[in-house]
Amino acid sequence: MLRRLVPSWTLRLMNTEIASFPIGKNSDNCEYIIAKSGIMDRILQMEVFAAINDSGSFVQAAQRLRMSPPAVTRAMNALEERLGVQLLTRSTRQLSLTDAGIRFLEASRRLLLEIEDAEKQAVGEVGVAQGHLTISASVTFSRMIAAPVARAFIAAHPKITVSLIGMDRVANLVEEGIDVAIRIGSLPDSNLMAKRLGEVRRMFVASPEYLQRRGLPVEPADLKLHSIIGFTGIMASHDWHYKSDKTRGHVLLHPRFEVNDASTALAAAVAGEGITMALSYMVADQLRTGELVPVLLEFLPPPEPVHLVYPQSKLIAPKVRTFLDFSFDRLKASIEKTGLAIF
């Protein structure tokens, strides 16, 4: 049972037989005494587990949940004891999830989100687009295409704040707290929902000045005779596999200059320093102005799809649904304009 010793608006459930914590700077120190309470206890254990993973430590999780560190430790121990599996691997320097922990965290986040949506529905907040939205995309896509759409979305919805995170890796949306991601390439089987925005393609480009000086490559093997500018975001492997109507094979490339930033690689190519590979949307402007030209077009791989992806849930948060509706046509139009329209 629960004994209320402070104003009800500060009430939180503790997964412990006795838990003490201060409510705030302007409140008296208070104490809640809560007995273990079945499903409510289990939900709180999930919340504690998620907070530990998000913050990276028991102490910071306690601060986030306004619990004492011992209470957080007891909650985590009780969760692992109840499940009979280890969810976290603890060391003096860091915490890491076990395989069971990864699975349980994803399921816990889905359940906690549904509980939050149910509470909003109960108080009539469903349908109101508000709160904080986190979006991820590759660094260059974020800068060139996603950022203008995100800014327009903020202007149209003043009750929503947005974090746009550029990352050239595939993020775990649930584990990293990302609401929506824009992904290029085929999607593996997952629990994510996806909306196809269009397609882009990988291509080799160089400046006309460089090609006039070094010659135009006619076959993939000719790349061995050229200065290659490597962009690790899409050229992680130097072994380029190609195919055309007549032949297929591979060429082992040896970049003279390699970077992890698309803008740097393209600047070097525009300056006449070599041939680089880019995605079509990255070089649309340079191709239109003639600063860069495509090479080896007949050997380029098929186009790659672009998707909006988001975690699967019976109840999609209004902020997510609103962004999907707002951004879909805008992103689709931008991809078409800067992608395959150049061919």
Note down, in words, how this protein is organized.
The protein is of the alpha/beta class. The protein has ten helices and 17 strands. The chain has helices at residues 39-55, 58-65, 69-83, 99-122, 139-156, 173-176, 208-214, 262-270, 284-289, 318-338, and strands at residues 2-3, 19-22, 29-34, 88-90, 95-97, 131-137, 160-166, 180-184, 192-200, 202-206, 228-231, 239-243, 248-252, 257-259, 275-279, 293-295, 304-311. Strands 7-6-8-17-9 form a five-stranded mixed beta sheet, with helices on one face. The chain has a five-stranded mixed beta sheet with strand order 14-11-15-10-16. A three-stranded antiparallel beta sheet has the order 1-3-2, with no helix packed on it. Helix 1 packs across helix 3 (69-83). Mean pLDDT is 81; it is low at 1-37.
- Provide the spatial order of strands within the biggest beta sheet: 7-6-8-17-9
Tally of individual helices:
10
What is the tally of beta strands? 17
Mean of the pLDDT scores?
Answer: 81
SSE run: EEEHHHEEHEHEHEEEHEEEEHEHEEH
Describe the main β-sheet briefly: 5 strands, mixed
